[in-house]
Amino acid sequence: MADDRQNGPDDLAARIARAKLAQDGAAGIAAAPTGKGYKQGSRVLAELIGAPIGGAVIGWGFDSWFGTSPWGLLILLSLSVVVAFRNIFRISKERPE
Q1: Rounded CA gap, 25 and 21, in Å?
Q2: Ramachandran region of residue 8, left (φ > 0), alpha (ψ -120 to 50) or beta?
Q3: Distance between CA 55 and CA 81 in Å, rounded?
């Protein structure tokens, strides 16, 4: 077998540096997902988490203020879930680039 590697500490250091550079370059591409599809996914996740939590908090606030427990919480939580799914449907209609 032909071995074109040189024997020496300088060659080893150069090969290690090239390997680290190649690894950092590959990791940088995979670690930073960009694009409209990724942004749409983040928006969907924010809608799924934020809308029901917001509706529940506001409903709980109305219930504690007006003494209508649990109706304000249930109504606003249900309404926020419907709004979240409507927004997700709108997001899904957008085409990623």
Answers
A1: 6
A2: left
A3: 8
